[in-house]
Amino acid sequence: MLEEILYSRGVEIPSGYPLSQLPVRESEATVLLCTPKYFDVSSAINPHMVDDQGRLNVVDRVLAQKQWDSLAGLLSDLGLHVEVIEGEPGLPDMVFAANQSFPFRRKTGELCVLQSVMRAPERRAEVEFYRAWYVDHGFEVVDFPVPQGASFEGMGDLLWHPSRRLLFAGVGPRTSRVVVEALPQALSMPVLALELMDPKFYHLDTALVPLDDERVLIHPPAFSADALSLLERIFPKFLIPPVEEAQRGFACNALCLPGKGVILDQSCPGTVNLLENAGFRTYVVDTSEFKKSGGSVFCLKMMLPMDEFGPAENPSE
Ligand code: ARG
Fold it and tell me: Distance (Å, rounded) from C-alpha 286 to C-alpha 280?
């Protein structure tokens, strides 16, 4: 069984390691969204937020609201229970609900959450509003000190293996190595540290979508050689979208809902083909306004390990 430690290179994992030895993780039935009422692009904290001349992108808020409504409607039509936090004035990025926290269940079943420490000062105040929501909904806020000068951006940089208690952690522009080193102990889970190499792929969730036990949607140039060697040990098959779709269409910011399909931005026909040919059902949505801020489908939501009536059944261990 993989130990509850950090792995940084593929050779550290025995080849042919059977993932079936790791505890099962159930997929989530509830999703948390944040309304886009105050969404805007007001400072450039990633390279996608400006145009070719370096001017801040201009958001059409009416269109952003429509696109958000369509995404929320689709998630609900796909059978998820949708919880909503209200956006706050002065916090234009709060709509990106994947970033402020990392919720999880302990092996013993308790609902817990790690709070983020955002890299950009502009985003730091978002965390407290999410924290209040978690406390109201019975989550224990885990004491997870982030050293001075370091940062941690929640599910932007921490992705689940599709079916097991195993995590992939992005180390790079937004989440510091020192924080990732502390994760296996804080979560009691094995964690694979994946170094991000390209500022355009500033969160792990912009370059990687674990699809099932065999396959991952990935933009390989975003990763270091060690990171790729780790991923190869876990996923025998890489699905690689056209480069342009990964860079501009946020193809690898898709949301995979196990057993239901993959939701992605409408600007990625090559990726849709790739996924459909691999047997995945796809759903396309327009996230043009959110892409102007450097985010798409995956960034706009947080999957929660609880069901609509409260805590879900304990995952089978
Ligand atoms: N403008 C936001 C930022 O730079 C976008 C966040 C997108 N979220 C994500 N999980 N990739 O922080």
Answer: 19
Dist. CA 19 → ligand 1 center (Å): 31
Residue 12 lies in a domain: no
Q: Which of 41, 203, 253, 301 to mutate to test the pocket of ligand 1 (most atoms within 8 A of CB)?
A: 203
Q: Are 188 and 14 in contact (CB under 8 A)?
A: no
pLDDT in tens, 33-91: 999 999 999 999 999 999 999 999 999 999 999 999 999 999 999 999 999 999 999 99
Backbone angles phi, psi at 269, to 5 degrees: -60, -35
103 lines ligand 1 (CB under 6 A): no
Whether the pTM exceeds 0.85: the reply is: yes
pLDDT value, residue 307:
60
* Domain membership flag for residue 18: no
Q: Which atom of ligand 1 is nearest to the CA of 206?
A: 11
For a pocket test of ligand 1, which of 46, 124, 153, 208 has the largest count of ligand atoms closer than 8 A to its C-beta? 46
Ligand 1 close to Cβ of residue 46 (< 6 A): yes
Q: What is the CATH number of the domain that holds 221?
A: 3.75.10.10
- pLDDT > 50? residue 309: no
Give domain status of residue 11, yes or no. no
Decide whether any atom of ligand 1 lies within 6 Å of the 119 Cβ. Answer: no
Number of domains in the chain: 1
Q: Give mean pLDDT, residues 115-128.
A: 98
How confident is the model over 265-288, as pLDDT tens digits?
Answer: 999 999 999 999 999 999 999 999
How much of the chain is helix, strand and coil, in % rounded to 5?
A: 30, 25, 45
How deeply is 108 buried, as exposed, middle or buried, from its count of CB atoms within 10 A (0-12, 13-18, 19+)? Answer: exposed
Which residue range is the domain that position 183 belongs to? 25-308
